[in-house]
Write a structure and sequence with these properties.
The chain is of the alpha/beta class. 46% of the residues lie in helices and 7% in strands. The strands form four sheets. Strands 8-9-10-11 form a four-stranded mixed beta sheet. It has a three-stranded parallel beta sheet with strand order 1-6-7, with helices on both faces. It has a two-stranded antiparallel ribbon with strand order 2-3. The longest helix is centred in the first third of the chain and has 22 residues. The radius of gyration is 32 Å and the shape is extended. The protein starts with a strand and ends in a 5-residue tail after the last helix.
């Protein structure tokens, strides 16, 4: 086995793990009988100060030697075949240690100077972390956070010994001595209490613990979006944004950006003049969502075809994707092909003219009351709608990130109630769990995919409420009013409700459901579940069973 190359952060920091390994195995490593080969000397630690511009420091000893310190040189490469011991402090403590060194060299000692130092220093810390802690290469090395090592020294020592010399038993007395040596080490190499740091501020240090972006990235994004330099006090605050895109979204939500954007982006009603590049740009999308009108849900999301003079109220899990696309096809809007690729996201977040929320509020309300506009919705039998939502969201797509936005609150609440420590979307929940949970919540708190359909129909007097099985009639009406030929709806996209009969399917977890042949919908409905649905979704049942006539 080659020498262990020692990497510490901050640079020049002495390694507690290296100290414990020497204590356990001696200054020179003995022959490991389990491997039948000699283990080389642990690289000696250097006491010299490290060059601060480098992300890491290394010291090494020639094979077979013991403790002669070698000169420190920057480690900027990861060499295959070598073994690395990486010991690092978290960023808040590393920032304090680095700042103290800077002050000792004559730097300014003030709260403002510390903020500036931390803002700059995070780039070095992030580079070190990416290279030596989170990279694929680092997964095969000995990487330990110093705070964890100090708190659980015996556990981490046994972990390191198991990786380096499997089969070698360490006497209990040695381990006990190692535990005692940690206290002595702390006396000789004290770790500052950051809460006692003279410039400590709990809000500031809370930010430091969650920084994600380098300072230069914040400055670049700020210039691109705001067209000016950021104030120094704001840079560190913006460094805790999750990504450049998240920062961009945050900035475009500010009053300053919106005031400037009103003079530089297309004005209300100029949808046809918007190019496809502008339509898909994050700047346009964010500006537009900031300028949707003040109509409440569900009115803001009602679809408008000015060409066909139709208002349509989309209802989640009632063919709303299909019908939204039909509304695009019968409307004179810019770039319909682009809109059809993401009809939910683009119409919700871009002012396309397809939703009531895209218009000045007085104009939107006039459209809602215009007798020339045909206003309609489509409803579905509550049991079938809920089963479709469950199969799609909680079974077939249960681990997809974009789907978990809808399902995590339910899965987390149900699993937490059963004592699971952490949310497990792949394990999921049963159909009975799903129905039991949603029928115990206020309807206005439910996700739109299983919120009562009656809630959607507030605020507008609809001319007709179609049933889900009348989709051909809906398409006929849209063709007649628009003069355009439209595609017809495919049936039962998720396949929920068609298949073999299996009792107690409502108590199966998602993995068990997917392992079976397709199940008949009756498999999921026993008297208890039917009673819960009937009681909670009574208004939906009335809507479906007694729809209005033309």
């Amino acid at each position: 086995m080659d020498n262990i190359t020692l990497i510490t952060w901050p640079r020049g920091r002495r390694s507690l793990m290296a100290h414990l390994l020497r204590l356990s195995l001696g200054k020179t490593w003995v022959e490991a009988r389990a491997r039948g080969q000699a283990l080389m000397a642990l690289a000696a630690e250097a006491e010299a100060a490290a060059e601060p511009a480098s992300p890491g420091a290394s010291s090494g000893a020639s094979p077979g030697t013991s403790s002669a310190p070698a000169a420190i040189k920057p480690i900027e490469m990861q060499l295959p075949g070598l073994t690395y011991l990486v010991e690092y402090e978290d960023f808040p403590l590393a920032a304090v240690l680095g700042f103290e060194e800077a002050v000792a060299r004559g730097g300014e000692d003030s709260a403002a100077a510390f903020r500036l130092f931390a803002s700059h220093n995070f780039a070095r810390h992030a580079a070190f972390t990416e290279l030596w802690v989170t990279s694929e290469f680092a997964r095969g090395q000995l990487v330990v956070e110093a705070a964890e090592l100090r708190a659980n020294s015996q556990t981490w020592l046994l972990w390191a010994l198991g990786a380096l010399v499997p089969g070698v038993e360490i006497p209990a007395a040695t381990l006990a001595k190692a535990e005692r040596m940690v206290a002595d080490w702390g006396t000789q190499n004290p770790t500052p209490d950051i809460t006692a740091f003279r410039h400590y501020d709990p809000v500031l240090f809370g930010q430091l613990a969650h920084l994600k972006l380098r300072r230069d990235v914040v400055q670049q994004v700020f210039r691109e979006v705001m067209e000016r330099e950021p104030e120094e006090e704001a840079i560190l605050h913006f460094q805790d944004c999750a990504s450049p895109d998240a920062l961009r979204t945050t900035l475009m939500g500010t009053r300053e950006f919106r005031r400037r954007a009103t003079t530089t982006l297309p004005a209300m009603g100029s949808h046809a003049a918007v190019t496809s590049t502008v339509l898909l740009s994050p700047e346009f999308q964010q500006w537009e969502v900031a300028h949707k009108n003040g109509l409440p849900w569900p009115l803001t999301q009602v679809f408008v075809s000015r060409h066909a003079q139709i208002l349509y109220c989309p209802i989640g899990k009632v063919a709303c994707t299909f019908l939204k696309r039909q509304m695009v096809r019968i409307s004179d809007v810019a770039h319909p092909d682009i809109l059809l690729t993401d009809v939910h996201g683009l119409t919700d977040h871009v002012r396309t003219g397809l939703q009531l929320g895209d218009y000045p509020e007085h104009q939107a309300r006039a459209l809602m009351q215009d007798p020339e506009y045909f206003k309609f919705a489509v409803v579905r039998a509550p049991q079938e709608r809920l089963l479709s939502a469950y199969i799609e969201k909680f079974v077939l797509a249960r681990t997809r990130l974009n789907n978990r936005f809808h399902t995590d609150p339910v899965v987390g609440a149900v699993q937490g109630g059963k004592g699971l420590a952490a949310l497990d979307p792949d394990l999921g929940i049963t159909f009975r769990d799903f129905i039991s949970w949603i029928t115990a919540q206020p309807s206005h708190q439910l996700d739109p995919h299983w919120r009562p359909q009656a809630d959607y129909l507030q605020g507008i007097r609809y001319d007709h409420i179609f049933r889900f099985d009348q989709m051909d009639l809906v398409t006929d009406m849209m063709e007649n009013r628009s003069g355009r030929t439209l595609p017809r709806q495919p049936t039962n996209v998720t396949g929920s409700g068609i298949g073999i009969l299996r009792e107690a399917a409502a108590d199966l977890l998602p993995a068990a459901i997917t392992a079976l042949p397709r199940l008949d919908k009756a498999s999921f409905f026993d008297p208890d579940i039917v009673a819960m649905i009937t009681g909670y979704f009574h208004a939906d049942s009335v809507l479906y069973e007694t729809p209005r006539s033309l």
